[in-house]
Amino acid sequence: MHDQLFWFFSIAMLLSGVLVVLGRNPVTSAMFLVLSLFFMAGLFVLLEAYFLAIIQILVYAGAVIVLFLFVIMLLDLKTENVRQFKRFGAAGALVVAGALAWKLTSVAASILPAAGAKPVVGTTEAMGKLLFTQYLLPFEVTSVLLLVAMVGVVVLSRKETK
Questions:
Q1: N or C: which end of the chain has fewer CB within 10 A?
Q2: DSSP string, the chain
Q3: Residue 39, domain member (yes or no)
Q4: Domains in the chain: how many in total?
Q5: Distance of CA 156 to the CA centre of its chain
């Protein structure tokens, strides 16, 4: 049963992610992003990471997407600007997917648990220790990528003065 739910949530999340990029209306794309975040929360539930699932829904699908919608409506994006945003997003998605595929192929054997290994408990303390010790570099790289994306959005949405 878990395998079927995993494939359902994974494929549905990927399809809604594609619809985010292919959508013509920015508000519709934001709604597909909400749907994608809900499917991701479903994957967290399957991993028994209930805290992450709730945070995914409350913080990201709730607060962050509302912020995105305010920015979309404030910018009053025209069709040509939306195309630029989508090209930028598609290029970024390809780069991230390529880096992820490269990394997963190089460390595939190391992520399998050893025989008799104690399973990782999904508490916030355990996640915090892992995040700020073993995964500190990816965490910092993600924060830099988010900063670059915010600067890119500001540059792309800037109105030209004559």
A1: C
A2: -HHHHHHHHHHHHHHHHHHHHH-SSHHHHHHHHHHHHHHHHHHHHHTT-HHHHHHIIIIIIIIIHHHHHHHHHHHT--HHHHHHHHHHHHHHHHHHHHHHHHHHHHSTTTTSPPTTPPPPP--HHHHHHHHHTTTHHHHHHHHHHHHHHHHHHHHHHPPP--
A3: yes
A4: 1
A5: 21
Domain that holds residue 32: 1-77
Considering the domain boundaries, does residue 68 fall inside one?
Answer: yes
CATH number of the domain where residue 41 is located: 1.20.120.1200
The tokens 């570099």 sit on which residue?
A: 137
Q: For residue 153, is it within any domain?
A: no
Asked if the structure places residue 145 within a domain, the reply is no
Answer whether 0.70 is exceeded by the pTM: no
Per-residue pLDDT tens listing for the chain (162 residues): 778 889 999 999 999 988 888 887 878 888 888 899 999 999 988 888 888 888 888 888 888 888 777 777 777 666 556 666 667 666 776 776 777 677 666 655 554 555 555 655 666 777 778 878 888 888 888 888 877 877 777 777 676 666
